[in-house]
Amino acid sequence: MAREKDTTVVTGLGLVTPVGADEDAFWAGLCAGRSVARHCTELAGLPADFACRADGSDLDEAVGGRAGWRMARFVKLALVAARRAVADAGLRPPGWDGDRVGVVLGVGVGGVTALVDNVRRLDSGGPQAVSPLLAPMMMPNAAAGEIAIDLGARGPSLAPATACASGATALATAHDLLATGRCDIVIAGGAESVLTPLVVTAFAQMGALSTRTADPSAASRPFAADRDGFVLGEGAAVLVLERSGHAAARGGRARAVLAGAGAATDAHHPTAPDPGGHGARRAVEAALDGAGWAAHEVDHINAHGTSTPLNDAMEAGLIARLFPHRPSVTAPKGVIGHTLAAGGAIEAAATVLTLEHGVVPPIANLEAPPTEWDIDCVTKQPRHQRVERAVSHSFGFGGHNVALAFEHIRHAGR
């Protein structure tokens, strides 16, 4: 009798986000549908003096030991999320075969705070004032490396950088590592922490940020007619992905199936999306093809939904054309802001939770469904809906497009 082909299953989630430092707080915050953007003293005087900071836990205490002194904030966020995901999966790293465990952690920028601080030190105090730890603190791959060290994961350790699609790229890469048999387990996700005056100013200067300084909580408004830019956020999300056979053999709980992943590039502009959404569509269609689904079988879309005029118009048009049966649409960035490289992983976690709970969180600050496009945005209140199949979109500067197709565990292998 032929052995059933392994699928990629999600067995653990770990999060540190602006709406809470654990899964329960994150889900409650999303379902409340209220933005957590607020003024930040360190950003005072800037065109956008507000953001969505990932508070709620003492990262140094959570990391523990002496290792934290060599880590930038984004690494600490990633490590805490990874430990929580592994614990949620019921895994005990000292007892696993580390050679078969990979780490793929997407980061867009890295330790920019440490870099800026040491530039000042160099200017004021000369070479001797620069920290000998600057290089490992600022490099984007530090998160993947530190997670591998902490957990004893000796398989492939990768750090994809596809801007705001990085977290989703990490999950797609992990899916490939499992599908090819290179790994039994992959710890995958994304992390970012760049809430510094320099980075905020950089995004503001290019016109990407909302300027609603009088009311930060109303600034992030995906798909609203009066949207004017995104709100920066920070955080991390890590998912434990396993081959289904491996998870079953150890008695692990499968929370969802990552049924397909697709990627494609616009080759259009460094920062603006292709208005026709051709690259995004190819990514979504590749994910559907990998999952073996027709477009009309999709029940729910977790949209990239940045609250920028160009992205939301491109994405809403894509959804309307590709999914005319009007699956429900949500956009977590209305609540948590744009967490850049972490966004694709955080929103993948949100998609898994929607499958599990049968609830679609509302889009913050969207008072009524948009009239410009025929899409079914969830507004004001969470919607109770049986969701069997869902797609999560992630798009990044450089024209990177990634789509992830998740399936409810009860419906997989039908």
Automatic annotation (TrEMBL):
Enzyme category, top tier: transferase
Record has Acyltransferase as a keyword: yes
The entry's keywords: Acyltransferase, Transferase
EC number(s) on file: 2.3.1.-
InterPro entries (UniProt xref): Beta-ketoacyl_synthase (IPR000794), Ketoacyl_synth_AS (IPR018201), Ketoacyl_synth_C (IPR014031), Ketoacyl_synth_N (IPR014030), PKS_Beta-ketoAc_synthase_dom (IPR020841), Thiolase-like (IPR016039)
MF annotations from Gene Ontology: acyltransferase activity
CDD domains recorded: KAS_I_II
Domain Ketosynthase family 3 (KS3): 5-408
Entry's family note: Belongs to the thiolase-like superfamily. Beta-ketoacyl-ACP synthases family.
Protein name: Beta-ketoacyl-[acyl-carrier-protein] synthase family protein
